[in-house]
Amino acid sequence: MIIGVPKEIKNNENRVGLTPGGVFELTKRGHTVYVQKTAGEHSGFTDAIYEDAGAAILDTIEEVYAIAEMIVKVKEPIEPEYDLVKENQIVFTYFHFASSEALTQAMLKSKSVCIAYETVEESDRSLPLLTPMSEVAGRMAIQQGARYLEKPVKGRGVLLGGVPGVTPGKVLVLGAGVVGIQAAKMAAGLGAHVTILDISMKRLRYVNDIMPPHVVTEFSNEFNIRRHIKTHDLIIGGVLIPGAKAPKLITRDMLKDMRPGTVIVDVAVDQGGCVETSRPTTHEDPVFIIDDVVHYCVANMPGAVPYTSTVALTNVTLPYVLKLAEKGWTRACKDHLDLQKGLSIIKGEVVYEEISEAFDLPFKPVAEFL
């Protein structure tokens, strides 16, 4: 199969779809890999390293899309890429369709085969291709939150860990999934007091077992959320409904109950956000303030640490890329139910129910294509 790795063009997206190691594994099996010029340089991988691994380098993104049977990238295609996606072309990436009707319509129009990293799901309901980026984002959420709590950037002026004689900062984590647990771990390591909320008692029991005593758990409901936002300095939104829009756990009217300089980091923003006032921001312009509450809503947080993120991502995506390259998408998805669950749009038809529901679009079962 011919695989194309374009350079990411989303604002400050520094990751790349495959490491040179991933390219080597594909080319040694007889597949052809084209990498766009300088696609990996921000992740620390030069064109020469890709060539040594067996890739051919192409100058432009147009050339990569034109020649590839399968595109492997990191973030969803953005508007300049919409018309480059070809009919029957496999596009394997993070899509987060439910947060963008424009992207959904563009991919329907392209009649391509869209397989979303974030909905590939194993039998235990874990999301293997989302997990490493959620781990990165959860840990970064505390780094960024701690930074924006500083007074020069309009935060409350609180040091999360405190110092002797001064109470540590308080962190509220919404969701005890991968993002939430990694955020809680980082915040606890700094010495902050952490409260983590979830609707799953199984997850809360797990958190209670693995975290130190200054991480406390509570059942998530509106009453508890409204109570805690009044006293916590940093709020992390880490909820996820696979393939669907995130629920709005913090509404516009709740901001007035927060203290000036409170910081919200909405990690769920790439799925629409779990805070009603959230809107996607970029690493270039990461925050905005509403009612004296600082909102950090960067939709590609792991792009700020591209070496770590690219290696972590290729570690988990490569086995699936190999299956698609060696079997083709129909056989690979028929043989591997986890990969089949990543199918979102096939040749102009929505095959993932949550996308259909998000935009009131016709739905066709995957089985009709396999």
Structure description:
Substrate binds at residues 15, 75. This is Alanine dehydrogenase. The chain is of the alpha/beta class. It has two domains: 2-120 and 306-369, NAD(P)-binding Rossmann-like Domain (Rossmann fold, 3-Layer(aba) Sandwich); 131-304, Rossmann fold (3-Layer(aba) Sandwich), CATH 3.40.50. Helices cover 34% and strands 16% of the residues. It is built from twelve helices and 15 strands. It has helices spanning 20-27, 47-52, 61-67, 79-82, 101-110, 131-148, 178-190, 201-210, 222-228, 306-335, 337-340, 353-359; strands at residues 2-5, 32-36, 56-58, 70-72, 90-93, 113-116, 170-174, 193-198, 215-219, 234-237, 263-266, 287-290, 293-296, 343-346, 349-350. The strands form two sheets. The chain has an eight-stranded mixed sheet with strand order 3-2-1-4-5-6-14-15, with helices on both faces. A hairpin with a 2-residue loop joins strand 12 and strand 13 (293-296). The two termini are 19 Å apart. The model has no long low-confidence stretch (mean pLDDT 96).
